[in-house]
UniProtKB/TrEMBL annotation:
It comes from the Bacteria. This is SGNH/GDSL hydrolase family protein. It comes from Hwangdonia seohaensis. InterPro entries: SGNH_hydro_sf. CDD domains: SGNH_hydrolase (cd00229). One of its GO terms (molecular function) is hydrolase activity. Keywords: Hydrolase.
Length: 229
């Protein structure tokens, strides 16, 4: 007969395995503060092509610049959230937006949030998200990888969690290449320039935001065959 100590150990092991399995299969693991914002413009006006920019707080910062850059050429909307791939609720949120509106080009970036989701859960939801986006976008889906995370106490160093960002970006590089999906490499274009970072090591200052906006604008213009000069 098993003693209480052995039974307790077995229970802990079982619960640990279940918890890890749940994370890999995809469950909702909330951050302390959750937020979601959608801003869909010119819903009843079809004169200009429609663009949707999906992402997190980085999109919140560069969306206005991209929308201004394309003001005479396209109607730019946004959907931003703290939810991460790996969380089934994120897919439901995305579905809700795409059920109501259609777009010509969709730019998609998701990867900085969801620290608790292992690569198994994150990667499982990448093709699910892409299939949703691809069914909606009339012309193109543009994938955007994640920016590096630096140590807020020493911006000269990358934060320990940056290893997760590299792992996710590596998966995205392979996935987009295999499926012939345009990929904007935010990481390579910004990771080694300290002048782009704010003191938190995650967000960008105006100079960094301008670089992001330029990369997004150029790729959207390319997909819409626009000459912005």
């Amino acid at each position: 007969m098993l003693n209480k100590g052995v039974l307790l150990l077995l229970c802990c092991l079982i619960l640990g395995c279940v918890n890890q399995t749940d994370k890999e299969n995809g469950i909702t693991i909330n951050e302390n503060t959750e937020w979601t914002r959608s801003w869909i413009v010119n819903t009843n006006d079809s004169k200009l092509p429609k663009v949707l920019i999906v992402g997190d707080s980085h999109v919140e910062r560069y969306y206005g610049i991209v929308a201004s850059n394309l003001e005479s050429y396209a109607s730019c909307s946004k959907f931003t959230t703290s939810k991460s791939l790996g969380d089934p609720i994120f897919i439901e949120q995305l579905e809700l937006v795409l059920k109501q509106y259609t777009f010509d080009v969709i730019s998609f970036n998701n990867g900085l949030h969801g620290e608790d989701y292992p690569i198994e859960a994150y990667s499982k939801y990448v093709p699910i998200a892409y299939n949703l986006l691809n069914k909606n976008a009339k012309k193109s889906v543009i994938w955007v990888n994640s920016t590096a995370i630096r140590d807020k106490n020493n911006l000269n160093e990358f934060a320990p969690r940056n290893k997760q960002i590299i792992e996710r970006n590596k998966y995205l590089t392979n996935f987009t290449k295999e499926n012939n999906i345009p990929l904007i490499d935010f990481y390579s274009n910004t990771a080694h320039n300290l002048n782009y970072y704010t003191n938190d090591g995650v967000h960008f200052n105006n100079e960094g935001v301008k670089i992001e906006a330029t990369l997004i604008t150029q790729e959207i213009a390319k997909k819409l065959n626009l000459n912005l000069e």
